[in-house]
Amino acid sequence: MRKGIMRAGHVQIRVLDLQEALTHYRDLLGLIEVEQDDQNRVYLKGWTEVDKFSVVLRQAEVAGMDFMGFKVLNDEVLEQREQDLLAHGYEVEHLPAGELQGCGRRIRFQAPTGHHFELYADKEQTGKWGISKINPEAWPRGLQGMKATRFDHCLLYGPNIEQTYGLFCDVLGFELAEQVVNPDNQKVAVFMTVGMKAHDVAFIDCPEANKFHHASFFLDSWEAVLRAADLISMTNTSIDIGPTRHGLTHGQTIYFFDPSGNRNEVFCGGDYHYPDHPPVTWKAEELGKAIFYHERVLNERFLSVLT
């Protein structure tokens, strides 16, 4: 958190049928439905998250990601990061408090990959779902599905990876935890963090801009990932790959799709990162093992199915 950005705070996902998507994200993934606003957007959160929401679903004609937001420490940091963005030539859009219900004012900008991101300092805090702030129990009763604990990160595909790496690390204060480089030592994938997590956002080089690969949610254990795999089969949910392990980050994972074709990941474990840790580097020729450590090859869906 070198420049006051604390964590990945929310993602707004476009879905083709809101009710089908709600059944998927609430009943299967296990997110908590918070409310619906006058724009017909549905707000959800993982049960351990203190802030009011972390996932927003919006019905649209094309699936994908509208934007991803990061929470900063306070309003002073928000002002400073806005000035940094402007000084580096990025246009900044202002969104008023309340445009997302329960969220303070936001500033939005576009990365060189074509994706939209935003920063905000304030969001209503409703606390962990079903857990008291005083003498809390270990976990709440009534959780559904996979019992996702929190929204963790997004993986995004687009061009201009070096420039995007510069934006996030030099301007916003993220740190490079892992990377994939080609034989010319150029970055083809970057995994960046603002804290101890393996990554808060990651990018893979792709000629087409603004493509959404997946939103990822954290589970407590490998047993929970295996249970998620059972639920995927029990509900005939479209699966991508897993359960398996990543080489990058070493997390244990499974990938699957929502009814609109947006990819989700649930995972557990994974590496941690401190500011004095040098980036871990994978060679592009070992990308299969880097992504799917056990299979050591990439399936076609993982590379080509994007929203």
UniProtKB/TrEMBL annotation:
Matching Pfam families: Diox-like_N (PF22247), Glyoxalase (PF00903)
CC cofactor: Fe(2+)
Key words, A-Z: Aromatic hydrocarbons catabolism, Dioxygenase, Iron, Metal-binding, Oxidoreductase, Repeat
Record InterPro entries: Catechol_2-3_dOase, Fosfomycin_Res_Enzymes, Glyas_Bleomycin-R_OHBP_Dase, Glyas_Fos-R_dOase_dom, VOC_core, Xdiol_ring_cleave_dOase_1/2, XylE-like_N
Catalytically driven reaction(s): catechol + O2 = (2Z,4E)-2-hydroxy-6-oxohexa-2,4-dienoate + H(+)
Molecular-function annotations in GO: catechol 2,3-dioxygenase activity; ferrous iron binding
Similarity comment text for this entry: Belongs to the extradiol ring-cleavage dioxygenase family.
Cross-referenced PANTHER family: FOSFOMYCIN RESISTANCE PROTEIN FOSX, LYASE, PUTATIVE-RELATED-RELATED
Protein name, UniProt field: Metapyrocatechase
